[in-house]
Amino acid sequence: MQFIEKLYINGRWQKPSTNNSLALINPATEQVFAKVSLASEADVEKAIVSAREAFPSWSATSAAHRALLMNAIADEMQLRYDDLVAAHVTAMGCPISIAGAYHVDCPIEAMRYYANLAATMDEVEEKGTVLITKEPVGVCAFINPWNYPLHQLIGKLAPALAAGCTLVTKPAEQTPTADLIMAEIMHKVGLPAGVFNLVFGIGSEIGPIMASHREVDLISFTGSTRAGIEVAKTAAGTVKRVCQELGGKSAYIITQDADIDAAVRYGVEDVMVNSGQTCNALTRMLVHSSKLEAVIKQARLVAQEQVVGDPLDDNSSMGPMTSEQQQQKVLNYIEQGIAAGAQLIVGGTQMPEGLKSGYYVKPTIFARVSGDMSIAREEIFGPVLCIISYDSIEQAIEIANDSIYGLSSAVYAKDKSSALKIARQIKAGQCYLQGSYFSLDAPFGGYKQSGNGREWGSQAMAEYIEIKAIICD
Ligand code: NAI
Ligand code: MG
């Protein structure tokens, strides 16, 4: 068993100043696979101070220098590919055959993508007597979730490094190992001491220290809406920038004249990705009532194609939930859906066939879900899809927008131009048309209670930048 008894602070591996540790559980075996020791308040303080001390020289480096280091980091990530895959398989239960594609490929590409954008920091806009320049915002604190540990880290880290910021990052309790590998990589490529600091800890204990600290200029949080609100409240006292990427209950409108089989396949597969633990999953499928029976038939078929099982088995397409807590939460929602009278068309609360242990949940689909049911309104964060019927496209748009969330959405219509007309009326940060997939060029973030700010795309750089106007007439 691995004992991770170190933090990465100021360019050195340091022992935490407490003896508190946390057991990491493999969700497929329910066995402890590692122990990680936790940072104290003093350790977090040290990490923030070292990020502050590193800021003046790192922010003064040339864009070309930062890009060079970032490309070296990407090269090292490629070399450590199998380790990064293993981190996701063991800590999250992601099937080994797809963990690279889900969790590692995009972060490597993203590192290079933002290395290319480092040069945009030098752009100066001239408007008459005004010069508009860009400067890095300063010391950043990152708090990340367990559902896409590496992807979420790189989504913050890469634009921050490109901009010239320094940082302290805290992974989720369940999934620290990908971050540990990244710290090893930072050390190997020779990133200056203090630019990247890694602390492990309990969110409710060290999160508030990061959020309230005077020497932290920006806090970027991804996770539950509950914790995201706490972070913003705690951060308010020091008027730092707060970026939040929170929950979702994204709607997917399939029009009456769309290719139903293709549209439903896309929607069901989208929800089952990562065992449904995806913030932008299209968990509300809105279908015309005249097509409901055809939709149910196809949805059941696609769900039954999923192979839920041992992450180490090459045939598995879905692993367990990342934690027992998450499994229990999802099963509880399935019970609520059944009790509320939704029609369970596939899945349910039993363990998938052939599995006796592990935090598994069957791919589950409800039809005839009404808008007032908790399964239609709340983020379940598991492999549970709700099919909701509508009678007119106006009604579909109304249902889509009837949510406290607005992270993502999708439309499948007869053709792209009819889909686009609907997309423009949905209140969400993204809208995927005609079966499209995630793109690094697409800014990602939420309307309403799904968050504030945008990650990914070139827009992500804006989070890490202070704009300075220099006026001389
Ligand atoms: P969580 O929000 O508690 O955990 C996410 C991160 O926040 C972790 O790093 C955790 O240590 C940290 N955290 C927790 N409390 C904090 C606080 N008071 N201050 C600062 N940081 C804090 O989420 P949890 O409890 O693991 O999952 C519950 C639900 O949250 C899920 O079922 C899902 O609905 C949602 N969630 C959404 C995510 C997303 O990507 N939008 C990611 C993870 C969870
Ligand atoms: Mg908002």
Question: What do you see in this structure?
Answer:
With 473 residues, the chain is of the alpha/beta class. It has two domains: 2-246 and 451-471, Aldehyde Dehydrogenase, Chain A, domain 1 (3-Layer(aba) Sandwich), CATH 3.40.605.10; 251-440, 3-Layer(aba) Sandwich (Aldehyde Dehydrogenase, Chain A, domain 2), CATH 3.40.309. 40% of the residues lie in helices and 21% in strands. The chain has 15 helices and 23 strands. The protein has helices spanning 41-59, 63-79, 81-92, 96-117, 149-163, 177-189, 203-212, 225-236, 260-272, 292-305, 324-339, 374-377, 393-401, 416-423, 460-463, and strands at 2-4, 7-9, 12-14, 21-26, 31-37, 125-127, 130-136, 139-143, 166-170, 196-198, 218-222, 241-245, 251-254, 284-288, 343-346, 364-367, 384-390, 405-406, 409-412, 432-433, 447-448, 451-452, 465-471. The strands form six sheets. It has a seven-stranded mixed beta sheet with strand order 15-16-17-14-13-19-20, sandwiched between helices. Strands 10-9-8-11-12-22 form a six-stranded mixed beta sheet, with helices on both faces. A hairpin with a 4-residue loop joins strand 4 and strand 5. The longest helix is centred in the first third of the chain and has 22 residues, at 96-117. The protein binds 1,4-dihydronicotinamide adenine dinucleotide and magnesium ion (MG).
